[in-house]
Amino acid sequence: MAFQQELISWYLVNKRNLPWRHTQDPYIIWLSEIILQQTRVEQGLPYFNRFLAAYPTVSDFAAATETQILKLWQGLGYYSRGRNMLFTARQIMDLYAGIFPVSYRELIKLKGVGEYTAAAISSFSSGESMAVLDGNVFRVLSRYFGISTPINSTLGKKQFSELAQSLIDKQDPALYNQAIMEFGALQCKPKSPNCEICPLMLSCYAKNNNLIPVLPVKLKTVKVKTRYINYFICENDNKVLVNKRISEDIWQHLYDFPNIETIAEAGVNNEVFLEKVKQNFGSAVVIRPLMQVKHLLTHQIIYVQFFGLDNYIINFNISAEANWVTWADLDQLPQPKILTKFINFYFNK
């Protein structure tokens, strides 16, 4: 038990004072866990505070509209998390009479709740002895025990899951889970961890075998995709034409401008591109370059161009999802971060 005791002793001295650590309310813990998926605590904390202030209970969350949730989520990325949360909140109202489940068995059935999240909520809210296994935990276990099996392989997931569960402190699983996650986040960091002050230094396999930069091992399987999106700004009487994204793609159910995606960078001198623009906005349309931006997502690099249009005609058969809104109304709609940057540029140029 020396490993667990060292982690808990370290945690009690070094833990951060985070609001979700002062409650056993499964709704609040769920809120924090989903927001912090793929998100640093420093970035996610303001969103957590805003969501909890706006929706203090799961019934409040369930009563919100998707537009309201996505607007509050704006800028956090991975918008499917927000949509899944709304589905889950309504699911809890329908299936559990508004009482948030606390057992792993019930939590794992909820949309957007995977094995890690179900283990975290169940252990933190009800003391269920379920080990968490996130990126921080993978790293601590891999380095300390010297496990080189790739963490994202089928064998690796099984091996680490069994090890993590065998280590869970039966007396206080919540405390142990918090401790090992915090240790990975603050002490056993991905790059340049300060091993000289680590309480596990003497018994750490990676430290004693110069494997800190090598472990954990992760298979590289995801290819980065490059995309080119061209947005068109159509204004009329202080209104602008916007488009609601309905396809199962990036920024689903967010609002942006009418656009054309091309296979390479396009411009006003590209005849093929201009022909596509004329098909959508009339043969007499005049196109004006406004702004170019490079936008990075986890697995995509998106080159975005914004164009102003004059003398255009809107073909609503082609642009079925397009609607006129005021600039003020657009500010109240959920939109990709890249649009917010453009709007700030557009009104301050």
UniProtKB/TrEMBL annotation:
Gene3D superfamilies: Helix-hairpin-Helix base-excision DNA repair enzymes (C-terminal), Hypothetical protein, domain 2, Nucleoside Triphosphate Pyrophosphohydrolase. Its EC number is 3.2.2.31. Residues 35-186 form the HhH-GPD domain. It is an enzyme of class 3 (hydrolase). Binds 1 [4Fe-4S] cluster. The keyword Metal-binding applies. Its cofactor is [4Fe-4S] cluster. Pfam families: HHH, HhH-GPD, NUDIX_4. It catalyses: Hydrolyzes free adenine bases from 7,8-dihydro-8-oxoguanine:adenine mismatched double-stranded DNA, leaving an apurinic site. GO terms for biological process: base-excision repair; mismatch repair. GO terms for molecular function: 4 iron, 4 sulfur cluster binding; 8-oxo-7,8-dihydroguanine DNA N-glycosylase activity; adenine/guanine mispair binding; metal ion binding; oxidized purine DNA binding; purine-specific mismatch base pair DNA N-glycosylase activity. Adenine glycosylase active on G-A mispairs. MutY also corrects error-prone DNA synthesis past GO lesions which are due to the oxidatively damaged form of guanine: 7,8-dihydro-8-oxoguanine (8-oxo-dGTP). This is Adenine DNA glycosylase. It comes from Pedobacter cryoconitis. The lineage of its organism: Bacteria, Pseudomonadati, Bacteroidota, Sphingobacteriia, Sphingobacteriales.
